């Protein structure tokens, strides 16, 4: 077959008088794409002419495209049949070229262009998905640039011939797609709305790195999309890297579920990192109250301090915001994570994205000194990091020691059934896990994951901690959901137990000390001596509490008649 460059445009007499044909842009087995001029509207247009053998493709595309109206989706302007009977669709002409051409010219793109492209295409996908349509062929060739009179070019999604209804795709009646950008489930003829998000993640990787995550033959790329997690370590800034990680999740059930959710998460990272460097932390008086204007109540809170200046973490679904409580409307940092943070020190934390666990030093320049502890944690379910070691689970549990000469992960089994297991790494490299049918057994393992000891407890384990000598465990009674107990466990010693009195809420353990609220406003703590101490009485009903790693400060999120507020307390019972 000759190249489409060698073809002359079809005879203009075949087209309605309204359209003048100027040149051929492309040709495939099913259609020809022509550049034309609409004399009625005085604009250039794209005319896609379907060959007689592609009648079904025309009907599918006109059904998908004709009623669409969105600034980031190519407009379908008209449809007609040529004098020879060939069906045609008229589209907006976008003169800025394609994203594929831009990538070929520039290699990787700057952050601003990358973010603008992701926002535009996510907005377009959200629109299509609301109409119950999947694009099915997201790739750089199908993203065009529309120059603007002022400001940067806009990005527009094209090639609506690949679009299909969700039901049609799920019934296996649609097989279009490009191997380099196709979602893993698509290879197995399974379709979801967020299959488009995986394809966009591949494009985002390409914009950030100047190359695709997987290269090779079609077979090699297909296998990599099914099983391999690409290295993201070269992508900056951190927020973009974490966002791409969320898009490239292999399991569609674990991936971001919608374009709207992905766009909302992307917008959360659009804060200037220099805010951290220019932030002026101010002393906060004890028992100070800060009124918070929050759109929603956070799922959890965390507390840190830098030389006595407190910082508060507000955990929401999918991300956590770090704020100076004196200036809560100016976020210092955001971590895109579906998991709770792990507090490693007063100004040190770890957080997980779908394929990595990262350690952050809050005192470092820019607010973050990231250490890629382990990559390719595909389908992460639970994890714990400490002392250059990592335990995580997906289908199995794995133990990774970065300091080993041959740092290969050790796989081991945990007899856990209905409930999420708790896991903790001790300073000597030993591991503690909660196991059993009701998560009521604690198992102590050596650094090679061999079981050394186990304890059967009278309750479901909800928190584990360690104080360099003993294991502190918080359990909830299996028969009475209002009864909590603290346990002190040590090798070669029988377990010791303390049953907590009163109506307990918001109980947790950090660095060998448990904190809880009793009877709505009473704040208490207890270490492995199992001798509880009163800290203070809260000014109002507590919704959430958090403590710093050194137990010096406690922050409570409370609610009164005027709304939400936070109060900072100094722990008079530092243990």
Automatic annotation (TrEMBL):
The name this protein carries in UniProt is Serine/threonine protein kinase
Keyword line: Kinase, Serine/threonine-protein kinase, Transferase
What would you give as a GO molecular function for this chain, any one? protein serine/threonine kinase activity
- Sequence ranges assigned to domain Protein kinase in this UniProt record: 19-270
Instruction: State any GO CC term.
Output: cytoplasm
Write down the InterPro entries for this protein, in alphabetical order.
Atg1-like, Kinase-like_dom_sf, Prot_kinase_dom
Provide the coiled-coil residue spans.
none
Q: Does the keyword Transferase apply?
A: yes
Task: Specify whether DNA repair is a keyword of the entry.
Answer: no
Q: Which Pfam families match?
A: Pkinase
């Amino acid at each position: 077959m000759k190249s489409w460059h060698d073809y002359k445009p079809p005879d203009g007499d075949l087209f309605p008088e309204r359209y003048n044909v100027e040149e051929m842009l492309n040709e495939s087995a099913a259609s020809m794409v022509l550049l034309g001029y609409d004399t009625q509207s005085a604009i250039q247009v794209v005319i896609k002419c379907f060959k007689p053998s592609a009648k079904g493709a025309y009907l599918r595309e006109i059904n998908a495209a004709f009623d669409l109206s969105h600034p980031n989706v190519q407009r379908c302007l008209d449809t007609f049949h040529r004098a020879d009977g060939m069906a045609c669709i008229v589209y907006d002409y976008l003169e800025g070229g394609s994203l594929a051409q831009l990538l070929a010219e520039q290699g990787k793109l700057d952050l601003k262009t990358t973010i603008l492209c992701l926002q535009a295409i996510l907005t377009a996908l959200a629109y299509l998905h609301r109409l119950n349509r999947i694009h099915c062929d997201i790739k750089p060739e199908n993203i065009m640039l529309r120059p603007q009179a002022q400001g940067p070019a806009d990005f527009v999604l094209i090639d609506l011939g690949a679009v299909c209804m969700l039901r049609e795709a799920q019934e296996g009646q649609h097989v279009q797609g490009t191997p380099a950008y196709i979602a893993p489930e698509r290879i197995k003829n399974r379709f979801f709305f967020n299959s488009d998000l995986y394809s966009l993640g591949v494009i985002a990787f390409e914009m950030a790195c100047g190359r695709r995550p997987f290269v090779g033959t079609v077979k090699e790329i297909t296998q990599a999309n099914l099983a391999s997690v690409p290295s993201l370590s070269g992508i900056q800034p951190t927020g973009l890297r974490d966002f791409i990680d969320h898009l490239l999740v292999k399991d569609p059930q674990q991936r971001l579920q919608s374009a709207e959710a992905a766009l909302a998460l992307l917008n959360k990272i659009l804060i200037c990192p220099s805010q951290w460097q220019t932030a002026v932390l101010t002393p906060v008086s004890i028992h100070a109250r800060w009124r918070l204007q929050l759109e929603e109540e956070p799922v959890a809170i965390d507390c840190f301090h830098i030389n006595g200046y407190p910082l508060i973490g507000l955990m929401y679904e999918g991300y956590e915001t770090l704020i100076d409580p004196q200036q809560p409307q100016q976020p210092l940092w955001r971590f895109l994570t579906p998991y709770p943070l792990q507090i490693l020190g007063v100004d040190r934390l770890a957080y997980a994205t779908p394929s990595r666990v990262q350690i952050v030093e809050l005192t470092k320049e820019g607010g973050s000194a990231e250490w890629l502890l382990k990559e390719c944690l595909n389908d992460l379910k639970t994890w714990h990091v400490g002392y250059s070691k990592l335990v995580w689970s997906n289908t199995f549990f794995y133990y990774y020691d970065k300091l080993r000469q041959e740092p290969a992960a050790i796989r081991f089994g945990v007899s856990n059934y209905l409930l999420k297991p708790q896991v903790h790494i001790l300073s000597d490299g030993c591991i503690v896990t909660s196991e059993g049918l009701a998560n009521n057994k604690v198992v102590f393992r050596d650094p090679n994951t061999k079981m050394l000891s186990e304890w059967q407890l009278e309750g479901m384990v909800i928190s584990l901690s360690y104080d360099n000598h003993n294991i502190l465990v918080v359990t909830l009674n299996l028969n009475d959901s209002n009864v909590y107990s603290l346990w002190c466990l040590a090798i070669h010693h029988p377990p010791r137990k303390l049953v907590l009195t009163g109506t307990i809420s918001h109980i947790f353990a950090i660095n060998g000390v448990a904190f809880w609220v009793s009877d709505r406003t009473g704040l208490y703590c207890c270490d492995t001596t199992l001798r509880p101490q009163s800290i203070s009485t809260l000014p109002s009903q507590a919704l959430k509490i958090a403590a710093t790693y050194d137990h010096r400060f406690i922050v409570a999120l409370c609610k009164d008649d005027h709304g939400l507020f936070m109060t900072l307390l100094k722990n008079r019972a530092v243990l």
